[in-house]
From TrEMBL:
Forms a 24-polypeptide structural core with octahedral symmetry. Its EC number is 2.3.1.-. It holds the Pfam family 2-oxoacid_dh. It comes from Vibrio nigripulchritudo SOn1. The lineage of its organism: Bacteria, Pseudomonadati, Pseudomonadota, Gammaproteobacteria, Vibrionales. This is Dihydrolipoamide acetyltransferase component of pyruvate dehydrogenase complex. Its cofactor is (R)-lipoate.
Length: 467
């Protein structure tokens, strides 16, 4: 039984194997984790769907495998028992029957593994040109790769690149032939490209004009700085940090970031929240936080400002009819993920509070799947839990806006009482939106923020909390 790379979302084309939890020959029980994979969206465990023995690994740690392609082969218990049932007389009869057959040309159309089919399709390989070395002359993945290594030149290297690698090369204007691939048969994988980009950034090639070129020999030698072992520690980025760095850099390079903030009065929200929070916790087992009220206000406002509930593709703005709200979740300072509440505008405050709690728990327990991270149209980042007063968040491209929720605190404010200005105490907090200026202008974003602030003050919040 072949275990393939699972589909982790409609936009994810491949996954990287980051850990093997079982070794070849080891017994595997149904539900036990075989290996762990990572994409630019999620890190997840891939469990066995049956009891059996791991008999083959098609990918090593660090290798990228396309969705639907085999990662491992599992010999099921039933298959093993069935093979053992054959007796010696049965085998002798089969051998005699085979020896009496006339040699015929074997058709391999029904004997191709998914990996062989994939390689043939993407490399225009004709099976008649290849001598199979598998059982009964079957053509294996190794046979295809060996044939390609002999018959394909390095100029054809781009034919075997994965979609994610092609995107990275295009974004950074890199030629695949400039990179030494570390994958099987010298294939360039995603990590090879990221390493190449890191090295190029750390050691940029100098651009010399005719004058400096003549004096190049007199230039001082530039030595790479080395960490002082006594005062400095070198910490290599793990896979998640590399993916976050890549996504953030992509956002800054693509979107035209502008940030706006607005002071918001939370008095109306806090009156209802503080009154209901204890009973809500007992009934639903989760907290009634200010974030759930803000999420509800954002959903209401987005229906009136649809250009912020959208994504940019090249020179077009594509608005979404549905509101799929991304909630940034911190993973104990080891990274972050952004699971999505689908059709968030269908929920009241109580429903949003439960959805936020469920997704945060799944994220921190590493239980998110690809579907939990797909399709977001707008994102909330709750930095206020750490006491921040003002944050300018980075847009989660291709979305066009993200809202940072900062700390809510009691502050002295000037209030109007019957035409007289008085100083009172109020629950105040800052909401900061970063938006893509390619998609909307400052006036549109400012009007949206003002509408959110109005909703926070005047919405009938008691009707939103079901207890």
């Amino acid at each position: 039984m072949e275990i393939v790379m699972p589909q982790l979302g409609e936009t994810v084309a491949e996954g990287e194997v980051i850990l093997w939890c079982k070794e070849i020959g080891e017994q595997v029980k149904k539900g036990e984790t075989l290996f762990e994979i990572s994409t630019d969206k999620v890190t997840m465990e891939v469990p066995s769907v049956e009891n059996g023995i791991l008999v083959k690994k098609y990918a090593q740690v660090g290798e990228v495998v396309g969705v639907g392609l085999p990662v491992a082969t599992l010999q099921l218990e039933g298959e093993t028992l069935q093979a053992e049932r054959k007796t010696l007389p049965d085998l002798q009869k089969e051998q005699l029957a085979v020896s009496q057959l006339e040699p015929v040309k074997t058709s391999y159309s029904g004997l191709r593994s998914p990996a062989v089919k994939y390689l043939c399709k993407h490399n225009d390989v004709v099976l008649d040109d290849i001598q199979g070395t598998g059982n009964g002359g079957r053509i294996t993945k190794k046979d295809i790769l060996q044939w390609l290594s002999v018959n394909k030149t390095r100029d054809d290297a781009s034919d075997t690149l994965s979609p994610a690698v092609r995107r990275l090369l295009a974004e950074h204007n890199i030629n695949a032939t400039d990179i030494n691939g570390t994958g099987k048969n010298g294939r360039v994988n995603k990590q090879d490209v990221l390493n190449y980009i890191d090295n190029a950034s750390a050691n940029p090639s100098p651009v010399l004009n005719s004058e400096t070129q003549d004096n190049a020999e007199s230039l001082p030698e530039i030595k790479e700085a080395e960490p002082n072992s006594e005062f400095e520690t070198v910490i290599l980025f793990n896979h998640m940090r590399k993916m976050i760095a890549h996504q953030m850099t992509k956002s800054v390079n693509e979107a035209v970031h502008v940030s706006q903030g607005i002071d918001v009065c939370f008095d109306a929200v806090e009156r209802v929240r503080l009154k209901c929070k204890d009973e809500f916790k007992v009934k639903y087992g989760c907290s009634l936080t200010p974030l759930s009220f803000i999420a509800r206000a954002v959903c209401i406002a987005l229906t009136e400002f649809p250009h912020l509930n959208a994504k940019v593709e090249e020179q077009t703005l594509i608005t979404s009819r549905d509101i799929h709200l991304g909630i940034a979740v911190d993973l104990a300072h080891q990274g972050l993920v952004v699971p999505v509440i689908r059709n968030a505008d269908d929920y009241n405050v109580s429903g949003l509070a439960k959805q936020i709690a469920q997704l945060a728990t799944k994220a921190r327990n590493n239980e998110l799947d690809g579907g939990d991270l797909q399709g977001g149209t707008y994102t909330l980042s709750n930095n206020g839990v750490y006491g921040t007063a003002f944050t300018t968040p980075i847009i989660n491209v291709p979305q066009v806006a993200i809202l940072s929720v900062d700390a809510i605190s009691r502050k002295p404010v000037v209030v109007d009482r019957d035409g007289q200005e008085l100083v009172g105490i109020s629950s105040q907090g800052m909401l900061t939106q970063s938006f893509d200026h390619r998609a909307v202008d400052g006036g549109y974003s400012g009007a949206f923020l003002n509408r959110v602030a109005e909703i926070m003050i005047h919405h009938p919040w008691q009707d939103e909390v079901a207890i």
